[in-house]
Design a protein that fits this description.
Blueprint (H helix, E strand, L loop, with lengths): L4 H12 L2 H14 L3 E5 L3 H15 L7 E5 L1 H15 L3 H4 L3 H21 L7 E5 L9 H8 L15 E5 L48 E5 L5 E5 H54 L8 H25 L1
Parallel strand pairs: 1-2, 1-3, 3-4
Antiparallel strand pairs: 5-6
Helix pairs in contact: 1-8, 3-8, 4-6, 8-9
Length: 317
């Protein structure tokens, strides 16, 4: 029986991504417990599907983060237009009307983008970054959220808990993101002349691209070529994400069970010891060479430890 494209892609994903590294990556995101996750709009998009499916299994439904995407090239364009103005004296800005208008239009777009997505600036945010080695990175989003003034924004956009985590996209498959509408004429190392990165500026700037719905040809590890759609790649990553997420969920449940057992033992011993020492104090029978005051101190301490352990045991249940 012929395998479907999705089945073959799942096999390819298993080959391309080290399972333990994937788990380590998911544990880091799980530990951060983010409310919002921003995906780099390149290779992190399909691996973001993996991440989302895994989080649905690993976390209670109410705690599954919201996922957004951003094109780091547009972010670089934003800072290229804004940063030169931040260091200009007022008199110089009067002769830079065009540049100021472009930057202010982009500022409005950025404010709209962030205001629509981040409702709680105190909530944990993870930037799932996959292009650190190439320089087309989301480090500037981290800078903007932690220090909004660096991009001309007000303090209302300042976020207190932002973490950038490397994605597992390196070596992975990614489907086309930017819609081919016009040639990019942005100078520099991040795509000058590439038809895949449309140039936008001013009030035309977009911080997310359009995902192509057509087919893409990818080369498999065995040397074969496979013609697949964006949806098929996303579906395959989701399936792999559910596999790994289930394994991690079982791992977390085992840890939780062990912690509950240890906590319950501590609670029982603490309460038992506390009652024993306090009872001996009340009856006037000193334990060994301990004085009544010592018995009271040990009893109260043990009782407090038992009650605290019991509280955490009940809370984890």
């Amino acid at each position: 029986m012929n395998k479907s494209n999705v089945d073959r892609l799942v096999e390819e994903i298993r080959l391309r991504h080290d399972r333990e590294r994937v788990k380590e990556n998911l544990r880091a995101v799980y530990k951060a417990r983010p409310k919002y996750i921003f995906l780099t709009e390149t290779g992190a998009i399909p691996t973001g599907e993996l991440l989302k499916e895994a989080m649905k299994i690993m976390l209670p439904k109410r705690d599954v983060p919201l996922f957004y995407r951003m094109d780091p090239r547009r972010l670089m364009q934003y800072f290229d237009d804004w940063e030169p103005l931040l260091y200009q004296p007022e008199w110089a800005l009067k002769d830079m009307t065009k540049e100021v208008n472009i930057a202010n239009a982009e500022k409005t777009k950025m404010e709209e983008y962030l205001r629509k997505r981040i409702k709680d600036t105190s909530a944990p945010i993870v930037i799932y970054d996959d292009e650190i080695a190439t320089g087309v990175s989301m480090y500037q989003l981290e800078k903007l959220l932690l220090r909004p003034s660096a991009g001309g924004l007000g303090e209302e956009f300042k976020c207190s808990n932002v973490e950038r985590i490397n994605s597992i996209a390196s070596g992975g498959m990614s489907y086309p993101i930017a819609k081919i509408t016009e040639k990019c004429n942005i100078p520099g190392s991040f795509g000058g002349g590439s038809p895949n990165i449309p140039f936008t500026q001013g009030d035309r700037i977009r911080f997310t691209g359009s995902i192509k719905r057509g087919k893409s040809e990818i080369k498999l590890k065995n040397g074969e070529f496979l013609n697949v759609s964006s949806k098929e790649i996303a579906t395959a990553y989701k399936q792999f994400g559910r596999e790994v997420g289930q394994e991690l969920h079982e791992e977390l449940e085992r840890q939780k069970s062990l912690e509950q057992k240890v906590t319950s033992v501590i609670a029982t011993l603490g309460l038992g010891a506390g009652i024993f020492f306090l009872q001996s104090n009340l009856t006037g029978n000193a334990i060994s060479n301990f004085s009544n005051n010592t018995n009271s101190f040990i009893g109260i301490g043990s009782l407090a430890m038992g009650l605290i352990a019991g509280f955490f045991w009940l809370r984890k249940k």
